[in-house]
Amino acid sequence: MYYLNTKAQSQLYQKIVDSQIFVDKSLMIEKISKVIGTDSSYLCITRPRRFGKTINANMLGAYFTKGYDSHPVFDKLAIAGTEGYGEHMNRYNVIHIDFSVFPDYCGGYQDYIRNIVETLKEDLKEHYPELGNREYRSISKMLQDTGETFLFILDEWDSVFYEKFMSDGDKSSFLKFLKGILKDKPYVSLAYMTGILPIAKYSSGSELNMFDEYDFMNDNVYDGYFGFQEDEVQKLCRNSRAVSFEDMKRWYDGYSTSDGKSLFNPRSVSKALVRGICLNYWTETGPMNEIADCIEHNVDEVREDIVKLVSGIPVEAELDGYSAAEQRLETRDEILSAMVVYGFLSYSHGFLKIPNHELMEKYQKVLTRDSMGEVKAVVDRSKMVLDATLAMEEEKVAELLEMVHDREIPFLKYNDENALSCVVTLCYLYARKDYRIEREEKSGKGFCDYLFYPKKGRKPAIILELKVGDTPEHAIAQIKEKNYLQKIETASSVLLVGIAYDKGRKRHQCKIEAKQIMV
Q: How many Cβ atoms are within 10 Å of 222's Cβ, its own excluded?
């Protein structure tokens, strides 16, 4: 048996339970059990890569599949404490297909789908010998002739859509295949499907319209079971002590459940705890060019948004979800919605933001691509701004800022300090090679705009304060008065940098002072 009533899911989930890093999401079983055999039994849950889709699919298969005793796996988990714990355990015929698994030789779609169809037919004939006396051209007819019902757990359903060999006709055929075995079939007690992009991305018609879809933007039912919540990460950090919770939050937090609870990237948290260091883990598992591809489809539509997001400024948008039937993204809403669904942006209460430091690093690289036009020119010149700052060349810093705003990115209007901060962020992008840069840190009696912590060596720390319609001297005075210096503990010296924009004269000004820190 390969798909029908196999022990594989129990074995795979047992490995997860026994892993060094494990978070119990078994209460999801209780919610899924309630929809079995009802008119709400078609579920499609989409999440970015490595957000726990396959783990949960294996968990459901391990719990529901008949013919096995799953008590040793689940007796110590949260589901064991629920009232109906054993009611649905090992009671169902489960067909579990991981659509991301390809045959050894796969020259195209026909090889791919033939392997799935033939394997499922073999399983059905082995489990129901009476079916072997007939030749079936239809999987759905075989399933119906068993006289029994099935739970379908279909993991990574859209994997084949990313293959270069897939034509539009192949994609249409695959949707019809799923429709043929699932839609309006009396033998379907549950169809639980996972993927990256919602069905509507591929199906503009009625092929799979029986599914209720739950994605990053609309899920208020199952959102707590995908990703790690804040209390779960705190517990992991207490037990491991390999990485501090504060570092975890900065690197991997930034998403949220429908009720506003923090949601962390689970794979990255797990990897950081095992390896004892926060690095970029999740974004290396898939082509990070997807971020740039989303932007490059129509860079003019979203260029200003991306500049603001990289500057740490939330962007307001009204997004209904990613439901474009076409593969190509064209409008601002389609591009930004796709980036939310992929997990590249978080969306809450009408505002978009880059979720965390892990992804911020990648966005900064996107800004260096040729497609970003004038923005790339600014980033390329950002080393000059850092060098001028370290050399305390105030007039040169002001001159470079002037050039960037007036000549390179005039689409940013100086209505407030947010626009000025966009220019400053781009102009100091090169500094991130040598500095950890934080925005609006809580320090002293208030907030400073930028703190530059040197990563290593003898470089001075930098505290940078912005003013629009004021003077750079006032910015320096605020740094001193509000005691922002107290946050600089790892450097022996610090540069106080005040940058101001005079609205009347339309001129940038810069003031730099050096201070020694008593260690």
A: 18
